[in-house]
Amino acid sequence: MSQAGSAVAVGSGGGSQPGARACGAPKIFGRKRAEVAVVTAVHEYAAWWTLKVAKFPKDIKHSLGQRSLELVLELLETLVEAAFVPAPERPPLLASANRQVERLRHLTRLAHATAALPHESYAHASAYLDDIGKQIGGWARAKQVPGASHGP
Predict the structure, then answer these.
(1) Residues 60, 65, 70, 74: what is their CA dihedral angle, to the nearest 10 degrees?
(2) Where are the domains of the chain?
């Protein structure tokens, strides 16, 4: 390239000015930071969980470990999608994310019960999943329409 930054697309946030961003400072993905903090938490959990699953015994790694990794990635994808859809389309995605977290809790408990996951790692995973679940629940409650009926 003859000129630094000449291949950067307009509005990509990668301009020649240090710290230049296409979106406003308090937003990520066009949403407020608080709304997508859970995406970051799940991303961090996925990276940590991947390293834990790699240490599982071979027979468990290729069954329970693989399934749990797939579910963590599904959860991440669901939350990224929720960050991009219009607010009225978000509740079913957040409900799905809640169910995915619950399934992850059970798979994590099973990994601990089979001794594939040490107690300290189990405690850490449980705390992480509880926090992720609370963040999803908070996001879902924050987006409810006042006066709308959500139960029987």
Answers:
(1) 130
(2) 27-142
- Whether this prediction's pTM lies above 0.85 is answered by no
Q: Which two tokens stand for residue 50?
A: 């991947």
DSSP string, 80-145: HHHHHS-GGGHHHHHHHHHHHHHHHHHHHHHHHHTTSS-HHHHHHHHHHHHHHHHHHHHHHHHTPP
* CA gap 108, 46 in Å, rounded: 13
> What radius of gyration, in Å, describes the C-alpha atoms of the chain?
19
Which class would CATH give 27-142? mainly alpha
Report pLDDT digits (tens) over 139-148.
999 856 554 4
Distance between terminal CA atoms of the chain?
A: 63
